Amino acid sequence: MLDIQLTRPLAPRYRPSFTLIELLVVVAIIGIMSSMVLYTLAGAQTDAKVSLTRSTIEKLNAVILEEWEGFRYRAARIDIDPDMLRPQLADGQPLLRPREGARLRMFVLRDLMRMELPDRMSDLVYSPAYYSATLSNGATYSVVNRIAPGKYNSLRQRIGIAPLIGGGYTDVVKAIYRLPVSGPQTPPPEFNVEFQGAEMLYQIVASSTHGGGSALEAFRPTEIGDVDGDGLPEFLDAWGVPIRWLRWPAGYASPLNDTTSPDAMDPLRSDLRWRDGDYTQKPWQLVPLIISAGPDGVFDVSFDIQDSSGAGIAYATNLDPYVGSYDTDGSWLGMGLGANIDEDSSGNFSAADDNITNYSLLLE
Q: Which stretches are annotated as coiled coil (predicted)?
């Protein structure tokens, strides 16, 4: 008898799988997590570049402020006829009163600062100035700066301009404002006006000493470049944009630009504008501004004084840095050099938060 055993057929095997919806959910989650990681990495990279740029600006600030502070106690050579200083009047006063003498010293120091700390090419193209004072008898007494300072000629040679030998021929009718007011009004051929402030900053540092050696020794090769290829280097921020500077940033709002304290070159407030009731913007103390465009690569301050038609005067140095200026479209910017031009969608000027400056370092 046959023993036949019947077995059940094997149950079909099903391979595990995902539905389309499940796959889309997983892909979406992975995408979100990747975005978070990339955003974090991008933020870390930006923070690293900000730190590198701050380090570069800190080194520049140390050199520039050392040069700037030197003018506070600088001896001003003024060739004055001794008779102007002797008592010659009925009241026993000299023809050149002490306050007028202080004003002459202010003129000389401002002119020296313009020549030795240039923030644009024309500061070096202009020759030394002559200065005028009013004597006690009402006459005008002029003093000519006949000697160009050595650093001025050294800087001229660095950028390819012949040294200046001889007297000063620059009119200084408005020396009380921004020196000087006459001379060449156009830059040399093929000169790039846009980067002139950055190039002048490099030349100042390159010709300065700091810490017992050349000031350039503190900078890495990656901090120096020549963006426009004109043979005049610039200091670069971490994004490869030239770092600019302004010697007299009157329009830059900061506690460092103290509107109640006089210019360091004029401690006695001999500048006539202190006594001029019609002049509301007094010649207060100005600290040099060193500025990087920051992550967005856009400078949010004005480097050029504008005239009332909105036309830029990027090369001339003949306007008062304390006077308000206009944007290129003719809109009023308020104060002059360094004025905020970062305009939001509502037409209001907002803080230039992404620019990196030496001011933020000094205020920390």
A: none
On whether the CB atoms of residues 47 and 40 are closer than 8 A, the answer is: no
Do 252 and 246 meet the contact criterion of CB atoms below 8 Å apart? yes
Burial class (CB in 10 A: 0-12, 13-18, 19+), 208: middle
- Domain spans, the chain: 57-174+192-363
For residue 236, what are the CA distances in angstroms to 55, 156, 223, 243, 360?
A: 12, 22, 5, 6, 18
Q: What angle do CA 116, 183, 308 make, to 5 degrees?
A: 100
- Taking CA atoms, 10 is separated from 7, 13, 16, 153, in Å, by 9, 9, 18, 101
Q: Is 305 helix (H, G, I), strand (E, B) or coil?
A: strand
* Cis geometry, peptide bond prior to residue 180 (ω within 30 degrees of 0): yes
Q: pLDDT digit string (tens) for 193-203?
A: 778 889 999 99
Virtual torsion, Cα 240, 189, 111, 257, nearest 10 deg:
-30
Q: Is 107 helix (H, G, I), strand (E, B) or coil?
A: helix
The Cα–Cα gap between 55 and 49 comes to 10
**pLDDT tens across 214-246, in order?**
999 999 999 999 998 888 899 999 999 999 999
- What share of the chain in percent tops pLDDT 90? 20
For residues 185 and 121, the answer to whether their CB atoms sit within 8 Å is no
Between CA 339 and CA 118 the distance in angstroms is 19
pLDDT band at 64 (very low <50, low <70, confident <90, very high): very high
